[in-house]
Amino acid sequence: MSQVNFDLASLRSFVTGMDMGSFAKAADKVGRSTSAISAQIKKLEEQAGTPLFRKAGRGLALTDAGEMMLRYARRLIELNDEATAAVRGTDLEGWVRLGLQEDFGETLLPEVLGSFARAHPKVRIEARVARNADLVTRLEANELELALIWDSGPASTYAHRVDGRADLVARPAMRWIGAKSLNWRVESGEPLPLIAFDGPCLMYDAARAALDRAGIPWRVVFTSPSLAGLWAAASAGLGLTVRTRYGVPPSLIVFDAKAHGLPPLPQLSLMLLRGSPAVTPPVERLAELMMDSVRGFTNPLESEAA
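Predicted structure:
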């Protein structure tokens, strides 16, 4: 039996199409025509020797083989890109001081920073997980080169406070998140139990404003200085908290706002701020990896569980 060598370009188109929810959109991103992408996917199925897609209503969904292929494709592409970066960046030296939100502490830190450290062993990384205000203050004090922050506007309201550049990474919607066992319903007339940070928080402010506009009474039942505390309280069924799709633990669900009589929540801007306009190659490389990782993030909990 001859050995099959999967085509990396086809695997990349496959992964990009699944991440973006459309192979037409993937065509623009990878710089190929839609017909070329279709040919790549057909070739991939031929190499696999089994269908990767099945009909699902008017669209297509992955078969079991397709799901397995997607997992391996991600690993192969990651290894390929890591090898490319390592070969081309063997002389990359310096240091990067990075700040990011707790939402990404368990995803970006091991994935992106681990890959970066392996590819660029001569670059020293110092990472800090903190809240917005602390990160922006440290950027202003030249204690960080990069910071991943939340912002309430379509463009950064923090950008004018630092000398560097602000890139819009994503604009995820905020979600009502809690334990499946939570039995609060708006028709009960009982105040909505809220779980929130114990200091200034854009998401808590947005939740409170949305509830007030909808005329829904609420009360804060738990506060914590850490995101881990919010997740623990929500998992215990004490109430609802408000976050985005990033970093939600499997013990919690995203509540269907309409089904539960909850008001819709707005989007937040996720910004990557640079502390200086004179960006060094290590800083720029890490910034690229972070943006690619966040933009490619998917979470099964995003499917609005009831």
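Summary: The chain has a mean pLDDT of 84.
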